[in-house]
Amino acid sequence: MSKPDLSVNIAGIALRNPVMTASGTFGYGEEFSEYVDLETIGAIITKGLSLRPKAGNPTPRIQETTGGMLNAIGLQNVGIDAFVEQKVPFLRTVSTPVIANFFGNTVEEYAELAERLDRIPEVAGVEINISCPNVKHGGIVFGTDPKAAYSVVKAVREATIKPVIVKLSPNVTDIVEMAWACADAEADALSLINTLTGMAIDLKKRRPVLANVTGGLSGPAVKPVALRMVWQVARAVKIPVIGIGGIMSGTDALEFMLAGASAVQVGTANFLDPAAAQRIATEMEQYLEDNGIADVKELIGALEV
Amino acid sequence: MQFRSTIISNQEVSPGYFRMRLTAPPELSGASPGQFIMVRVRDAIDPLLRRPFGIFDVGTIKSEFPGLGSATYFEILYKVVGKGTEALSDYHHGDHVDVIAPLGAGFDLGDPAEEKILVGGGVGIAPLYYLARTLVQRSRVRFFLGGRTRDDILCVTEFERLGVETYVATDDGTLGDRGLVTDVMERHIREDGRPKTLYACGPMPMLKAVADIARRTATPCQVSLEAYMACGMGACLGCVVKGKGHSDDTPDYRCVCKDGPVFTFDQLKWV
Question: Among all residues of chain A, which has the CA nearest to that of B233?
């Protein structure tokens, strides 16, 4: 049997396999180049960008929890100018598609960033962060109110011809409603879930562990919640869905595809296994081979309920 | 680099403190003093994240038997404080862990003509042993070692065997001078006016005291920081510390993993 086909197409971006690296867990790609062959990854999603550099939150910013971790980094990033000057030259040397994640404080800022990113040829697509739970103006207002989400996605849509992915927050009453609003605003794809708001407490000090008090939970602990939300959203919208949430193995990734995801993002796993994305793609290929499945696309939404 | 490492030995050197020797690829012998490693203590999701450890020593054992070549090893010194170190402490000769090393920026060895003053607190002496071993070949080295009580004072003989003058202080006086190691160190370095450099690793209050002495005596000083971190390669931004220019309006955060773990004291903001 010939090698199974792992390629997928997300909103016009051709991926050699469905495994992308989630924003904020893979730096700007270069940090990981010593440990993983970047040419084996479906796509690289870079750390969330803002118009100006952003310092982020006070420390402590992270805390391990059972089967997961909390973070409240606060969107620290180099800003769009430094991204263009310092990060893009390296990304140019990699053939893997680069998707730039970004966020703003206002609809106008989102649109301005989209316009800037539209002019960078190395950027294959953009992912709008409307879902960071850790900053007041990090998008979460846009991520919890369907009307606000619609207006920000619409503004970005008008500012760029590149594929637009919207990253959704799980911290909402009805994620399908949010998905509909983004699809109505002509998003090309949706990615979910961002982190779940959580908390850790230090009994001895009687204080929260994180300086930000609350943080975003990620890692294997969130996978069941993520699977459920991906399944709900994929049934409800016609645009592709990218599954995120605690993916550690090829099996995890394929479960998300069964639930309806056309591709996946690997996040926290990169921290403990810098070659996680490469390994997960290999494990997916092995599963397809072992089970005589010629094309990974056969599994998208193939869940029998 | 990332490699699967075999545990050669794992010895409790003092109650709750372990010294572990592990195999490494030959390239690791090029690691600089002050660099660190990230260990995945278990191939499981709990504990999930890797744990950072300073490199206590690196070496190569030449086989006495012809044809058997040589083997590179490294050592870490750790205190059992939680899930990760607890799991590590259970390992025996022949067990395996996954290691990423060497990481971060190590110590600047400075001018050989200057005397080197090393200050360590508790398990914070870990990166100072490899440093002392490297420095003592070219400079006079004095080592000041502090802890709460005698059980926190580790590896004194090892330092002395290097030819390093070693001074001990404990908070309760159960070993060495009673009091803060930084006070003992300051008395010693004020005795002579010769140029020297300070190297310190230990708990934050001790590092602050060392930085304060460095500032008051205009002595060059490098500190090695410990931090909670997820990745060790500058991606998670979880381990940042405040740089000297930091204020609410001009934030200046540095990654302990990538910009450090060794900083000159004047690169940081000491509050």
Answer: A31
- Rounded to an integer, what distance in angstroms lies between the CA atom of residue A240 and that of residue A242? 7
Q: What's the whole-model pTM score?
A: 0.94
H helices within chain B, ranges in order?
Answer: 83-89, 126-135, 156-161, 181-191, 204-217
Task: Compute the half-sphere exposure of residue B83: CA atoms within 13 Å on the CB side of its CA.
Answer: 15
Q: Which residues contact B92 (CB under 8 A, 6 or more apart)?
A: B7, B10
Give first-to-last CA distance, chain B, whole Å: 36
Q: What ipTM was reported for this prediction?
A: 0.92
Q: Which are the contacts of A218, defined by CB distance < 8 A and separation ≥ 6?
A: A68, A69, A71, A195, A196, A245, A246, A267, A268
For chain B, the residues whose C-beta falls within 8 A of a C-beta of chain A are 1-2, 40, 45-50, 100, 228-231, 233-241, 251-253, 258
CB B235 to CB A73 under 8 A?
no
Chain A environment of B255 (Cβ under 8 Å)? none
pLDDT tens-place values along chain B, 271 residues long: 999 999 999 999 999 999 999 999 999 999 999 999 999 999 999 999 999 999 999 999 887 777 777 899 999 999 999 999 999 999 999 999 999 999 999 999 999 999 999 999 999 999 999 999 999 999 999 999 999 999 999 999 999 999 999 999 999 999 999 999 999 999 888 877 788 999 999 999 999 999 999 999 899 999 999 999 999 999 999 999 999 988 877 778 999 999 999 999 999 998 7
CA distance A298 to chain B (A): 30
